[in-house]
Amino acid sequence: MADEVVLDARGLVKDYRRDRAVDGISLVVHAGERVALLGPNGAGKTTTLLMILGVVSPDEGAVSICGFDLAHQRSHAAECVGFAAGYLPLTERMRVREYLRLYAQLYGIAEPNPLIEEGLERFRIADLAGAMGTELSSGQRTLIGIVRATLHRPRLLVLDEPTASLDPDVARRVREGLLDLCHRDGTALLMTSHDMSDVVEVCERVVFLSHGQIVADGDPDAVAAAYGRGDLAGVFLHLAERHEPTGAQQSDHP
Amino acid sequence: MTQPPIPLAITPNPMTARAKSWLRMRAIARRHAYVLVRSPHRLFDVSLWPLVDVLLFGSLAAFVGTSGSTPAAKASGYLLAGIVLWHVIYQSQIAMSTGLLEETWTRNLLNLMVTPLREVEYLGGVALFGMIKLVIGVGVMVIGAFAFFSFHTWSLGFGLIPIAVVLLVVGWAISLFVMGLVLRFGTGAEALAWGVMFVLLPLSGVFYPTNALPTVMQPIALALPTTHAFTALRSLVDQRGTDWAQLSIAAIGSLIMLGLSMWFLVAMLRAFRKRGYITRYT
What we know:
The complex is a heterodimer.
Chain A: E1 5-16, E2 19-30, E3 34-38, H1 45-52, E4 60-65, E5 68-69, H2 74-79, E6 81-85, H3 96-106, H4 113-122, H5 138-150, E7 156-160, H6 168-185, E8 188-192, H7 196-202, E9 205-210, E10 213-218, H8 220-226, H9 232-243
Chain B: H1 17-37, H2 40-43, H3 48-65, H4 70-105, H5 109-113, H6 119-149, H7 160-185, H8 191-203, H9 218-223, H10 225-237, H11 244-274
């Protein structure tokens, strides 16, 4: 299963007006692989994720998910993917169980109750099933969002800043839940985060972006060593400095 | 890129594509039903406002009808029948347009767009929900017109059904156009969801023949399918039977309108994805 390619993005380019947000990114993720997409603000992470999710169409390049060409088989490809982001709200005026049921049905699951129970248990929030979305804290909303994204047991789970604004205990539950999911179901994980401790604990591969290009890709320790830094935070700070306009002429590569 | 599709790790409930589509449409309709039931002010759309309209136009009809002249008696019937049928367009249009607007107001658009939900399934879901609102809203009007003014809408006969279908299609066409504008220009375009109706209402001759309009407006009115649908309605009110000629023009016009609106929406959706407008709602 580990050889199966769940995400194959080739030569992605995206321009917004005069700015090139993504400049030729190619990324292959295999089943069960846990990958962090890292880089300073404006490096092109979210645009890359949105192209992988089919919400933004690339100017050049193509994305294939589980063998489905995203440009022509978006709905089939989307069945293989789950997405959650720390900044996204829950759908309003619904109880948690109703909300999860809605999204399970959008993924074609007619009787989702056992999967909802399992998902809530995985992140230890079964007591929230009857709560209204407006009654939840931001951390609880994030957890519910991740449960929603994993209900249909996706082959690829895409998370944008999953632990942003979470307290350490909830962040730990998120990490443990994600690792459990990846190990049990062989789900591949592609996540962005500014919290390097999350990355080290959850991901086995890091992909650093800068100015819309991949500048490093590999094992976290190997990437840190290539940049002559002790850890990923050092690499991040190095790239963030290069990302400033005054440093744009300097090389982002190690 | 040539790898064959990988099956899901676990397939919880294998279903046919058609069954999945129907499931998704019902899920979307139910999602909007929750919004309606849990936002009391939105229930006004299908209860209070239809009742206010029937009271307003029914009272006008009663006042006009007291003169006893034949034209006044006719106008009286035009007013009540017109406002009841006008709500077919209003309810179908508002339900669909505010369906998408609800997703933008609550920043829910991205949540939906990453799911396997197809655009046509989403539209089917909000249209299904709109039909429920339509039945409730128009039902309230029919009952109100009967209770307060002894106006028997159903006495107009089965000819009402094709007229209502044409108006339903026009309502959908307008809502698709408004959705396209919202996708392209953002929620700033939402005023059009209601504004378009206020333009269409006088031009369509809902309560009067189009020759009552200023001469310069009459060609515009005649180009609208709604005008011909309401002309057919007046034929029923005047007990002249179903005016199939007017109804045919209305039906063809409404289908052309629907086709153009769909084309516009698809083009705006393409621009939405191309220009990354989703970031307006995240």
